[in-house]
Amino acid sequence: MAPKKPSYLPFLLQPLLLLLLLLLLLLLPPQGGLPSWLLRKPKIHLRTSDPDFLAAVDSWFKVLLPKIYPFLYHNGGNIISIQVENEYGSYKACDFNYLRHLAGLFRTFLGDEILLFTTDGPEGLKCGSLQGLYTTIDFGPADNITKIFTLLRKYEPRGPLVNSEYYTGWLDYWGQNHSTRSIPAVTQGLENMLKLGASVNMYMFHGGTNFGYWNGADDKGRFLPITTSYDYDAPISEAGDPTPKLFALRNVISKFQEVPLGPLPPPSPKMKLGPLTLNLDGNLLAFLDFLCPQGPIRSFLPMTFEAVKQDHGFMLYRTYLTDTIFEPAPFWVPNNGVHDRAYVMVDGVFQGVLERNMKNQLFLTGKMGAKLDILLENMGRLSFGSNHSDFKGLLEPPVLGQTILTEWMMFPLKIDKLVKWWTPLHLLKGAQPEVPSGPTFYSTMFPILKSVGDTFLYLPGWTKGQVWINGFNLGRYWTKRGPQQTLYVPKLLLFPRGVNKITVLELENVPPNPQIQFLDKPILNSTLHRTYIYSLSDTQNAYDPMELSGH
């Protein structure tokens, strides 16, 4: 949705790329993922020569590759190179039959003239490269350029040295500090590579946004979901604005080749608005008939998102207590079986949160027949490295005290559809709890009296949830954990004349004064506390600080 500003690209990329790399990441984008429907076959082995996986790849490529063929360079188009797979050497499968199969598909549909290449980090070259495909490498400014290119020459003795992903910044994880790479480090690394005559593709050159539910996640000792913002500290920001890093890179390039003269497009106008007070619409459970109009799926044991064809978002699990629990009893899911975050309610009263790799136990009481609801949130799928099948939902039946809970109802929720056609919520408004907690909807309408511009939504004091502007899913906020505090709102989502609507699903707790603001600058680096992990040992209240590293 962000406005495109292609006029930045020619002055920077044309002089820089001695070999133009059109990175068609046809199987696994750096922070994307494979379609979740593949996991409806639970035993499938992704990114391998598993016949079930290859059948899906073949079906897709037979449609996709013929559409690309007319645009190849030797056919008069502008595609001169195509990437096969993406950093496959980091996947650990090391299945060369799979890579050969992919290469054969490309050759079958695209011919022998097109240059096919692979890219991997230094540690992935052994399993990510393949004879007959040109080998490139990716790394950032902090790495030893001479050492890395020397290693690359072992796999690609001749031809240009290519860094196909030169990291201008880095992505962010919820609960960690905002990632940055200094201008001197990025520019010096670029200059050193250009002195060697190497070719360079910058990742990211333009920051972006993981709107809706489309963020990825990493596994670095624990599950790490990526923030909604993918600003990446890139030369062009998430909002499409030039940064000082862009001009510094331009100056480096000018040492090696003349760059076009002339002014650059200015930053887009930004807008401030508010604060605006949101109105309580009601608890999520009150709208269950609208969120899941087809009714629940029943099963003795809980089923995953994939088993019920819920690709993303949320699903509600419901069962009833078969005994009265007088004293607080431990409630948990074995084998780290919450994927990824569970909001627990007993008879509609919010009890707390279970989180993958983070918090694995609550203590509950309840009468026989009490309704136990668990709202499960898919926080994004693993999208790098050994991203084995990342099933979502309750992967194991929960345990309360000594009892394994069975007889479940699963409600796949169509929240986006409800938000878009919001009328029923107004019909259902009635008595609400004085201090609502747990998954709850809020909304308000607002006009824009001045000119519309890009803006950044700020939810001070809110905890965690999802936001929609005029029915468009902006993405997740997690004010309490950070580092991201604002959500990018492109002006194209706003109505310059007429009434706009913001809808918030707060999953935990709202501030005493449920207000939001639209700011003219983003806040991306405000982690409100140190990152800790909940101990998964018997000592539930022990906290251990955790140090993390990049890919």
Question: What would you say this structure looks like, in words?
Answer:
With 551 residues, the chain is of the alpha+beta class. 18% of the residues lie in helices and 27% in strands. The chain is built from 10 helices and 33 strands. Strands 12-24-13-19-16-17 form a 6-stranded antiparallel sheet, with no helix packed on it. It has a 5-stranded parallel sheet with strand order 1-2-3-4-5, with helices on one face. Helix 2 runs parallel beside helix 3 (96-110) and helix 6 packs parallel to helix 7 (244-254). The radius of gyration is 25 Å and the shape is globular. The two termini are 28 Å apart. The model is unreliable at 1-32 and 529-551 (pLDDT under 50).
Helix/strand layout:
Layout: H1 8-16, H2 51-68, E1 81-83, H3 96-110, E2 115-120, H4 125-128, E3 134-139, H5 145-155, E4 162-167, H6 183-195, E5 199-203, E6 208-209, E7 216-219, E8 223-225, E9 229-230, H7 244-254, E10 273-277, E11 279-283, H8 288-291, E12 297-299, E13 314-320, E14 325-332, E15 338-339, E16 341-346, E17 349-355, E18 362-366, E19 371-377, E20 381-382, E21 393-394, E22 399-400, E23 403-404, E24 408-412, H9 415-420, H10 423-428, E25 440-447, E26 455-458, E27 465-469, E28 472-477, E29 486-489, E30 499-506, E31 515-519, E32 532-534, E33 543-545
Parallel strand pairs: 1-2, 2-3, 3-4, 4-5, 7-20
Antiparallel strand pairs: 6-9, 7-8, 10-31, 11-25, 12-24, 13-19, 13-24, 14-18, 14-22, 15-21, 16-17, 16-19, 22-23, 25-30, 26-29, 26-31, 27-28, 27-30, 32-33
